[in-house]
Write a structure and sequence with these properties.
117 residues; two-stranded antiparallel ribbon; 3 helices; mainly alpha; elongated
Length: 117
């Protein structure tokens, strides 16, 4: 079922991407020189569809990095909670081991030991 849903979404998206690439195959000039409009020092000639896809890919990467940086505090808290959980688990195991070794040590003042009841 998951494969069918994935195909149901990806096939139309792929179709739209192919149509976009075919419709925008004329070359354009991208200039990275803000001072010389007529004769730029650094320019690239590429089809419009390629420029759009590269811009989209750069946006996805920047968005992913931004999300990763924002979630850093949550990853830090998760590591802290895991260390605390491991510490508490070791403490519980040590108490269980000492209870197995000496059951009378767990009886509080004024209580009777279960072995003597």
């Amino acid at each position: 079922m998951a494969g069918f849903i994935k195909a149901l979404i990806l096939v139309p998206v792929g179709f739209v991407i192919i149509l976009l690439a075919i419709a925008n195959r004329a070359p354009i000039t991208i200039s990275f020189d803000p001072f010389s409009e007529a004769d730029p020092l650094l320019s690239v000639v590429a089809p419009l569809w390629l420029v759009l896809f590269v811009a989209l890919a750069i946006g996805v990467v920047i968005g992913g990095v931004a999300a990763w940086l924002v979630q850093g505090k949550h990853r830090k808290l998760e590591r802290q909670y895991k260390r605390e959980c491991d510490s508490l688990r070791k403490e519980v195991e040590s108490v269980r081991e000492s209870a197995r070794a000496n059951p009378a040590a767990l009886v509080g003042p004024g209580e009777r030991s279960p072995a003597r009841s």
